[in-house]
C-alpha cells in the first residue's frame, strides 16, 4: 500500500449525510427485497402463466445470475460512467423492468424482464453503500453501515411476509408493480442529493486519459463463471448434484472451476480489469467477506427452512408463516441503532462481530431443539435471536471490511462484498434444500428400522388404529391398510421434522466455525482522524 493511498484526503459530502442516507437506502431496500419477495409468489406466478413449477424456478435463477454478473464489475462501471450516473441509470432501468415483469404475458417474457431487472439491480447495493461511506466521516462509519443494514438486512426478512400478503390478498403481478412508485420516488430523491466526490471525479478523469482496451475476455469469463454457478445452485438438488446421469451438474461445475481460475489469473495481470480482486489481499476485507458470506448463507438457509417447516408440518399458509417470522425484523430495527451507537464510541468491531456470530449460533441451536408440539409463539423467539445476532455483526463487519481498504479500491471492494453477500444467500438456500432432502431420507430409514409387527408398540398402535378405522368404514381389510398408512404418515412427519431441525443445528455449527476468522482480523476501530492502513 503506497503512502499516497494512506494519506489520501477524504472528500467532503456535498449534502447533509442524513438526507443522502434517506435517499439511497430506498433503492437498496427495493432491490434486496426482490431477491426474496418473489419466492413465495412463485406458485401463483406459474399458475397465472400456465407453466410448471420447475420451469418457473428460472424466474428466480435468471434474476440471481444476472445480479451476480453485475455485482463484481460495479466498481469498473462506476469509474467508467461516474457513480452518480450509473446509480441513477440502475434505478431507472430496474423500475422499468419491474413494471414489465408485472405486465408479462408468458413465462419467457417474465424471465427476460427478470434478467434485465437483475442486471440493473446489481448496481444498486454497491453504489448506495459507496455513497454512504463517502457521505459520513470515518468516525461515523458505524452509523453509515447501520443505515445500510436497515435495507440489506431487513429486506430479506420482510420479503417473504410481504410477498405472502400480496399474493394472498391481491395478485402476483403486484409483487413487481410495487417497485414502480417506489423506484420513481427513489430516482427523484437520488437525482437531487447524490453527487460524485472529488476523488471519484479525479479517478474518472485519469482513466479517460489512459488508453485501455475493454476487458472483454474478463467479462466473458465472469459471465461463464457466475451463470454456471447460479444454475448449479438452483438446479443441483433437482438434478441430483454429482449423481446427475445427464452430466449437467458435472459440466456446470467444470465450467465454474475453469472459469473462476481463468478469471482470477487473467484479471490479476490485466492493466484495466473489469473485476478487480486486489482488495482481497487486505486481511480484514478477506475475513469480512468470509463472515458476511457465511452469515447470509445461514440467514437465507434458515429463512427457507422455517417457512417450509411451518407450511408442510403445521399447516400454515404463506401469510401466517410470514407473520410468525416478521417480529424478528422489528427487533432487528431496534437493534441496529444501538449497534451504530456502540460503534460510534470507537468500539473494536471485531468483538461485536464475534458476539453477533455467537448469538446467531444460539438462535439456530434453539430452533434445532424444537418439536412438533410447539405453538407459533415458541417459533418467534428463536427467530428473533437469530436475526438480532445478524444485526449485531452486520454493521461492524462492513466497517471493519473497508477500514484498511485504500480509497481507489473501494469501488471494487464494495462490489466484491455485495457479490459475496448475495452468493451467500444463494448457497444458503440451496444448502437448506439439499440438507432437508438428504436428512429426511436418513431419518425415514432410521425410524423404519423397528417398525415391524413384532414390535409391541407398533402392534398396539396398529391394533388401536385398525379398531378406529373399522368403526368408520366397516371394512376389516381397508381398516388394516389405513392403520399401516397412518403409521407411515406419522413416520414421514417425524422424519421431515427431524430433517428441518438438523438444518438449524448445522447452521449453528457454521456460525461457530466462523469465530476463528474473527481472531485473524486486525484491530478495527473507526477513530476520528485515523489514517487508513494503520493497525
**Number of domain modules:** 4
CATH top level assignment of the largest domain: Mainly Alpha
Q: Helices and strands: which structural class?
A: mainly alpha
The shape, in one word, is globular
Looking at the structure, the CATH topology of the largest domain is Growth Hormone, Chain: A
- What are the segments in which pLDDT stays under 50 over at least 5 consecutive residues? 1-13, 529-535
Distance between the termini: 13 Å
What profile does the largest beta sheet have? Answer: none
Describe the overall structure:
With 535 residues, the chain is mainly α. The protein has four domains: 9-211, MFS general substrate transporter like domains (Growth Hormone, Chain: A, Up-down Bundle), CATH 1.20.1250; 213-270; 281-439 and 503-535, Growth Hormone, Chain: A (Up-down Bundle); 444-494, no CATH class. 76% of the residues lie in helices and 0% in strands. The protein contains 25 helices and no strands. It has helices at 3-6, 17-33, 42-48, 53-56, 58-70, 74-81, 83-103, 107-121, 124-135, 141-152, 154-169, 174-177, 179-193, 198-209, 216-235, 248-269, 283-313, 318-325, 327-344, 349-368, 376-403, 410-447, 456-473, 476-513, 515-519. Helix 17 packs parallel to helix 22 (410-447), helix 20 packs antiparallel against helix 21 (376-403) and helix 22 runs antiparallel to helix 24 (476-513). Mean pLDDT is 85; it is low at 1-13 and 529-535.
